[in-house]
Protein: Large ribosomal subunit protein bL25
Organism: Metarhizobium album
Amino acid sequence: MSHATYELKAEARERVGKGSSRELRRNGLIPAVIYGDKQAPIAIALSTNEVTKRIHAGGFMTTVATIDVNGEKISVLPKDYQLDPVRDFTMHVDFLRVSASSKVTVEVPVHFVNEEKSPGIKIGGVLNIVRHEVEMHCPANAIPEFLTVDLTGAKIGDSIHISHVSLPAGSTPVIADRDFTIATIVAPAGGVDESAAEA
């Protein structure tokens, strides 16, 4: 499962536009929008500190949150956020309204385990990661925190495809028409250490 859900308090924004956004940021707030689920978008303002903390904690884009807008609690999934290119603070966030039955498309990080059980890596082979993240269709209430790739038994020349990964229930890769590669084990630039290979 993904990171624990959390709640953010927000206030509805009457005025939108550059001037009001600048004023919000001066007051320690971030302009944001909640849209989707066949309802009208809602313009809101959130605490800059709270949102920045959530972004830096990791899993921001794959964790369903509750936003309390003047007492109305709305389940959302962050879809996008803009950072100031110079000062690295959050400028704006887009949230997608979700329900228990919603399916969402998210980038799920890939974690590799058991490198020490890979004969190819043991003799000096290099893990060449083709995809650090895989785009997945998932239930909004069961977004995987990451996909686990087990490298046990992987030799030099082996390719690890999406079919080698056990996917969480209800989650499917967006690329469905081919068994795409996630990583390969390649020989190092200087060749393989033969003595290690014999050992």
Notes: The CA atoms of residues 103 and 139 lie 4 Å apart. The two ends are 40 Å apart (CA to CA).
